[in-house]
Specification:
By secondary structure, the protein is mainly alpha-helical. The protein has one domain. A two-stranded antiparallel ribbon has the order 1-2. The two termini are 21 Å apart.
């Protein structure tokens, strides 16, 4: 079963991080009228860049242009949680700009659905390979 865990670890972690980002963006939207609230966001790329560290991967890359083969061992979202700098200053020191947050949430939801579809496709291919005669 270790091979299945490795096969799905990247997809599982991507879905977890994308879900966490959607929660952060939803909190920003919910606090759009809260004085002194500071909008935050997760940097998906930074989370994966910092957590691609697993020496147990058996696949070796032979060219610098190949995709990395390491699997993320942990997703520490707190290190990638950043405060957003607003385009326009607000009188109550709230940095949430509703149109920006709604746009980012819509994009994050589309990315989540794409990651989920990729995961479902991978699982379907594996199931087909295991049950094929």
């Amino acid at each position: 079963m270790d091979i299945l865990n490795k096969a799905f670890a990247l997809n599982e972690n991507a879905l977890r991080v994308r879900g966490q980002r959607m929660e952060v963006l939803a909190a920003n939207i919910a606090n759009a009228d809260t004085p002194n609230f500071k909008a935050r966001d997760l940097d998906f790329g930074e989370i994966f860049k910092n957590n691609l560290k697993d020496d147990s991967a058996n696949i070796q890359t032979t060219n610098s242009r190949h995709y990395p083969t390491d699997m993320p061992v942990e997703t520490n979202a707190n290190s990638a949680l950043k405060y957003r700098v607003p385009f326009n200053a607000s009188l109550d020191n709230n940095t949430v700009e509703l149109s920006v947050e709604q746009s980012n949430y819509g994009k994050a939801a589309a990315e989540y659905r794409a990651s989920l579809a990729f995961f479902e496709n991978s699982a379907s291919q594996l199931k087909h390979a295991l049950t094929s005669e």
